[in-house]
Amino acid sequence: MNVLNFVSAFFSDSAHWHGYDGIPQRLLEHLQYSLLALALAAAIGLPVGLLTGHTGRGGNALAFIATAARALPSFGLLVLIVIVMGFGLLPVMIPLVVLAVPPILVTTYEAVRSVDPSPVDAARGMGMHESRILFQVELPVALPLILSGLRSAAIQIVSTATIAAYVSLGGLGRYIVDGLYQRNYEKVVGGATLVAVLALVTLAVFWAAGRLAVSPGVRRR
């Protein structure tokens, strides 16, 4: 059987559409892992990136941290954490957050630093507080690039959250892991297809978010 036949057989099997191992349930689990990891990464990366970008301090340290974090293999980190902490959701969240923080952190920093200094200087000359300058002057202009960092992090999380299945959790990775163990390549290909489709949907969601959140004047720049 070729790949298209595997995909067709997987999605046409009614057994894959209901129950604890059905596509809706596994998709929901995968989304829960992904959204939680993205929220945690954004809670870390956005404030630090905004603050350091606004002040212009810590750029070299951010670059070092981002490079070091990107060099860590997610699966290897997962295995190490499981050995130390045991099974559970937390050992899965840690490598996903470590994976997602660098693109959010670095892109947010660069987005704020790339804002034209003229309106920033004008706002300071008018006596505007630094926090208002950041959120009312710099952030609206930096938003497109910040969203691109969040988008990159989200796609990486969606693609990598399959590792949850290796520590007995759910998600779409369950099809891949179980399929390899059972030599059921229909299930492997079906799971991989679902992950790829979810990544494309994530792209579409962030494109739509950019259209809604970014002002037309900034989008045309």
UniProtKB/TrEMBL annotation:
ABC transmembrane type-1 domain mapped to chain residues: 27-206
SUPFAM superfamilies registered for this protein in UniProt: MetI-like (SSF161098)
Family annotation (Gene3D superfamilies): MetI-like
CDD domains attached to this UniProt entry: TM_PBP2
Xref: Pfam families: BPD_transp_1
Main location (coarse class): membrane
Keywords noted in UniProt: Membrane, Transmembrane, Transmembrane helix, Transport
Places the protein is found: Cell membrane; Membrane
Entry's transmembrane regions: 31-50, 62-87, 157-177, 189-209
Membrane topology: Multi-pass membrane protein
InterPro entries to which the protein is assigned, alphabetical: ABC_transp_perm/SBD, MetI-like, MetI-like_sf
Family: Belongs to the binding-protein-dependent transport system permease family.
Annotated protein name in UniProt: ABC transporter permease
Species name: Streptomyces viridiviolaceus
